[in-house]
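To illustrate this point, what follows is a protein record of this kind.

___
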Amino acid sequence: MGKFLLKKILQITIFIIICIMLFGCVSQQNMFNQEEFEEKFQVLQQWSNTYSNPFGYIGNIKTINEEIVLVEYVAKYPFPFVINWKTYDIDNGQMLWELPGGFISDYYGQVVFDEEFLYSGNTAKLRALDLESGRIIWKSNINAIQWLTIVNDQLIVGDKYRIFSLNKSNGNFNWEYETEKIPFLILPSENKKLIYSLVGSNILVLNAITGIEEGNFSNPCKYSQIDSIFLWDDKLYCDSSIMDLEDGKLISEQGNEDRIVFRNNNIIYYLGKDFRFYAYDLINKQIKWEKYFFSENGEPIKIVKSFFADGNHGLFYTIDGVLRVIDLDTGNEKYYYSQDTKIDYKDYKYRYFINNSQVFQDDLFVFSVDDQFIYVFSK
């Protein structure tokens, strides 16, 4: 009897271990209730991907001109790398074109685009791709792109120890400016006549047409995250400081430890260390509204990821596995969906949380919620 019971316990233990290792059946139960989600959010399309690498996942989603979805597929093993990029038509979900991972990059500069072309690069090549076909229009040799931005008819490139300008239609060279350190952010002025580049401890001011230096200021934003730095009303804003870009004088050191996560015109949105999310009006210089997200027991809860696209709505994914859609004008919570993950945040599997989201035309959402599927749903 004792041997039989011991054998049964051993069999059950082995089964549980194998189940966790291969399928994660204990922790993955009720991870995503597709029927409930489709009923609540009016899912219009669901796209799935067949991976060349069985350990692949959706790494990023970008929306282009409210018509095209650019999707990055990433392999987990033997190390994280981009397998390929695919584009889809938002209206019917049809794949338009596909390119190997090295042709487009999220790791070197950004993916930027205009009405005709998509621009991206890696450690060796900068490419302009036709949006409709994925065909290479032109390419240019580079060192390692740090930043890309479009200014009028130019593509401004922050490369290793230099900033240079190319004609965005044909890739022809316009001008070059050498830097002592790597430029990690380039912002055009509101009138597009100047560009401001954050280079180490300095802000470099260049004429956008000629590349001639017109100023050099101390950088108050060197410890801020890139997405927390922006220009507005000829002033440079970051988490804790405001600088007048006409003379380089520091207007204010706000001492604000909260992080800027988004800006829409004169409204900036902060995510506080106390889990508070709030909107600040730059014109009236006051908080417009503030909001906490709460767990089922009424405690303020941490935001794991946040996404903003159309300026009217924000998508938030909180630590308890809840997807929330917020009206950014009022702070009101418009939609709420719980995935019921039941996973401790410290041990969570990254793929069970929303990888990325975007908003189309103020009435469509596109997001990925796991390794394989992309959902297009209506509000």
